[in-house]
Amino acid sequence: MTDASRFRVNPGRTPGAYQRGRGSLVCAAVRVGRKILAVGGIRMGTKVAPLPADAPPRSVHRFTIEEYERLTAIGFFTPGDRSELIDGWLVDKMAHNPQHAGTVDVTNSAIADLLPAEWTTRTQLPVRLPGDNAPEPDVAVVQAPKQQYTKRHPTEKDVTIVIEVSDTSLDEDRRLKIPQYAKAKLPVYWIVNLVDRCVEVYTQPKGGKNPTYKTRADYGPGDVVPVVVDGEQVGTISVTDLLP
Predict the structure, then answer these.
(1) Does residue 145 have a cis bond before it (omega within 30 degrees)?
(2) pTM reported for the whole predicted model
(3) Which residues, 6+ apart, have CB-to-CB distance to 226 below 8 Å?
(4) Domain Putative restriction endonuclease: where (predicted)?
């Protein structure tokens, strides 16, 4: 992809296309917050498909994972942009209220205390998955050491558990994240459900045309959740200890 700084907006036009010099190469542009970005070369006359009906409900922009990583590398995205790549869509993330942020912290600490030395946790950082996906789960249990992720993001081969803490994001954490995590064959997916005050544990991922998890188990206050790492139970966590 070409650096956006090498393109210019055509004067007098609504932002939506950049053109470089003479010729027919035009770059589609999108707005991310207050920024306008050239995202890829197309030929004049190319029709831009409308957003599909099942696109994510918040502000989204279509990228390949290579484009997304290139933009991140050149500093286009800032911490204030708060977005993640889901099936090629750049999805704006919800702001964190104290209940959500505190539960992420508590969950991460509870999981980390149980892990064998060869595993570690990451919080709200990218995981590179197939199919133009770079979600940022609230907690991910990945292979240690952490130092290896200074050169690359973890992939599906590194991850054994992903966890989302869900309040206002509950619908999307089920509807969008379940298919993506199942398609990547991530073994265990937890939703710490602050709405219904339970922990949903999804296991046995199934790929194919409609990826999902074959098994769901719900744990409420008074229950303990088994922590299964690389196929082995390493301990349990009380649901009451996780919920605010």
Answers:
(1) yes
(2) 0.69
(3) 201, 233, 235, 236
(4) 66-224
Distance CA(35)–CA(30), nearest Å, equals: 8
Distance CA 58, CA 168 (A): 13
CB of 60 within 8 A of CB of 50?
Answer: no
Residue range of the domain that includes 198 = 98-242
**Inter-residue contact 193 to 201 (CB < 8 Å):** no
Per the structure, how many domains does the chain have? Answer: 2
Give the CATH number for residue 234: 3.90.1570.10
Among 182, 183, 186, 193, smallest CA distance to 218 is for 193
Judgement on whether residues 20 and 114 belong to the same structural domain of the protein: no
Tens-digit pLDDT profile for residues 191-240: 999 999 999 999 999 999 999 999 999 999 999 999 999 999 999 999 99
Domain endpoint, select from 92, 126, 158: 92
